[in-house]
Amino acid sequence: MSEPRSSIDHLLVGVSGSIAILNLPTYLVALRAAFAREVRVIMTGAAAQLLSPSTVALLCDEVFLDEVPTSQKRPGHVELANWADMFLILPASANILGQAANGLAQNLLTTTILASQTPVIFCPNLNEKMWSKEAVQRNLRTLTEDGHVVVGPKHAPAYEVGTGVVTDTLVLPEPDVLIGRLEKMLRQF
Ligand SMILES: Cc1cc2nc3c(=O)[nH]c(=O)nc-3n(C[C@H](O)[C@H](O)[C@H](O)COP(=O)(O)O)c2cc1C
């Protein structure tokens, strides 16, 4: 009998404009070290405003941004979706949840989500007031009903940019906890 898989070859990480992007480098290092042989990243325009794509490029194999079409051949949304053994959205903004739940394809990341043939794993990070909105909860339900996976945030003390204080808020699961969840999913997919 073959051993259960605990790592993958190709991990695609979609990064959107949530403040949790400040922790993205830690996640990329952990995912590359313990889970995926090759990691490609797609950043939205809002994400690229919050964290430099050049910094992200130091910690993954390739970064993809929204660009106007050129004659240069490069992987587009369909190729990126096909390449991925697993597609993780980390962090997922309220906007990305809403776009994906409604099948909208406004940029490279949302278009690649729509082109994905495997379930997409969303790791939302939003302020508690946004998280508790019925519209957001409805989008999360829709994504789950459509066969995607939502790895919910947890409560922990963290620095809140809006107020400038450390407060109990919603944060992404720790990298080792997330990797444990992904390994479990590998056995289920
Ligand atoms: C400093 C800053 C922090 C933000 N943090 C969050 C966040 O944690 N969660 C969220 O859903 N939106 C957050 N936003 C708002 C999103 O960036 C905004 O909705 C944007 O349009 C998302 O675009 P995207 O989903 O294409 O990346 C933040 C915006 C700024 C300027």
Automatic annotation (TrEMBL):
Signal peptide location: none
Record flagged with keyword Membrane: yes
Keywords: Membrane, Transmembrane, Transmembrane helix
Domain Flavoprotein: start-end pairs: 10-151
Protein's UniProt name: Mersacidin decarboxylase
The organism of origin for this protein: Rubrobacter tropicus
Transmembrane regions: 12-35
Any Pfam family the entry gives: Flavoprotein
GO cellular component, as recorded: phosphopantothenoylcysteine decarboxylase complex
Gene3D superfamilies reported in the protein's UniProt record: Flavin prenyltransferase-like
Domain of life assignment: Bacteria
A single GO molecular function term of this UniProt record: phosphopantothenoylcysteine decarboxylase activity
